[in-house]
Amino acid sequence: MKKTFEVSDKLFELYHRVHRLVNESMTEEGVSLARSKFLFFLSKLGPCRSTDIACALNFAPRTVTEAIDGLERDRLVMRKPDPEDRRAKIVSITETGRAVLQAAEHPRKQLIEEIFSALDDEQLDQLYDIVSKLVEKTDDIRKRKEEAEAAEIAVAR
């Protein structure tokens, strides 16, 4: 069991170190990793409501609103009235936002390549398989928890 926690701790350590390095390199190009998530989402899916962004990225609506305020202030996104709901706004990425996102993407990819160059092709394949198994297991656990919660709600009714 001790080895399980040691490996887990190493994975978290790796994640945090890579996250920090990637964030620093992207920020030098004009957009942080966190902000790039919003821009990437908008560039792939197109204009949408902030509630759609919050749901897709699993963020609180207030967090999304604050992030969009900052992105809009920097002219990376724009808001327009939603033609179907006058209370809502449609958020879209601007050309400036696309340019900033593209500029930040290159150093991110370069850094990831450099980090993973420590592994040969066989090791990369093994790591991919191992991480995929762990992702699948976490999905199974999440599904089981959601089913248990749904069952508890059904019993309470």
Characterize the structure shown:
This protein is mainly α and 157 residues long. It folds into 2 domains: 2-117, Arc Repressor Mutant, subunit A (Orthogonal Bundle); 119-157. The protein is built from 6 helices and 3 strands. It has helices at residues 2-28, 33-45, 50-57, 61-73, 95-116, 121-156; strands spanning 48-49, 77-82, 85-93. A 3-stranded antiparallel sheet has the order 1-3-2. β2 (77-82) and β3 (85-93) form a beta hairpin. α1 (2-28) packs across α5 (95-116), α2 (33-45) crosses α5 and α3 packs across α4 (61-73). It is flat. The mean pLDDT is 92. Pfam families: MarR. Residues 8-136 form the HTH marR-type domain.
**Rounded average pLDDT:** 92
- The percentage of residues in β strands lies in 5-15%
Distance between the termini: 40 Å
**How many individual domains?**
2
Q: For the largest sheet, list the strands in their spatial order.
A: 1-3-2
> Which homologous superfamily in CATH is the superfamily of the largest domain?
Winged helix-like DNA-binding domain superfamily/Winged helix DNA-binding domain
Q: Which series of helices and strands comes N to C?
A: HHEHHEEHH
Fraction in helix: over 70%
CATH topology of the largest domain: Arc Repressor Mutant, subunit A
Class by SSE composition: mainly alpha
Form type? flat
| Tally of alpha and pi helices | 6
Please tally the β strands and state the result. Answer: 3
What's the main sheet like? 3 strands, antiparallel
GO molecular function: DNA-binding transcription factor activity
Domain HTH marR-type: 8-136
Pfam families: MarR (PF01047)
Protein name: MarR family transcriptional regulator
